[in-house]
From TrEMBL:
This is Putative ThiJ/PfpI family protein. GO terms for cellular component: cytoplasm. Residues 3-166 form the DJ-1/PfpI domain. It comes from the Bacteria. Coiled coil: none annotated. SUPFAM superfamilies: Class I glutamine amidotransferase-like. InterPro entries: Class_I_gatase-like, DJ-1/PfpI, Prot/Nucl_acid_deglycase. It holds the Pfam family DJ-1_PfpI. It comes from Rhizobium mesoamericanum STM3625.
Amino acid sequence: MTRLAIVLTDGFADWEVAQLTASARSYFGFDVVIATPEGEEVRSMGGMRVAADAVAENLHASAFDGLVLCGGTIWETEKAPDLKPVIGDFTTHGKLVAGICGATLALARAGVLDATDHTSNAADFIASAPGYAGHALYKDSPQAVRAGKLVTAPGSAPMTFAAEIYRALGHGGDELDQYVLMFGAEHQPKAA
């Protein structure tokens, strides 16, 4: 069974992993583990309270197939959790690592964006991360960008973020393409 650790922080963006968590658990049968800083209950931007299954700082790659960091308000502040050791453990072990919106700042601080294609909310947004050296590999894309087992996305791309995570885990194909089209249908031009 595929096992994903999803990190949520206080002020997480409700929409950014909603398609992923719901379909991973109910459709693909993944074991989805919600981890938070220090294992504390967190509240989303919209006020939804979430209790943790695990402590984010204690996650180990040996127990999971992937690590997904949800964006939110905290990543741009000094209160952002230091997940560099966790991110390093997952990348060292060749596991999926994914970040959307503000969570791409955590990936930048961990150095995983310095040598591979990636995206974020904007080039100047990601450039604000201390130590970031991946300017030349930044892709200005409205969709998620996948480079091997690394997936990044702007906060406005939760559907392609979920899709690229599935593809990185080997769950691509026609069925996934149809799923993306179905949930992204509202973004298609109206027929004349």
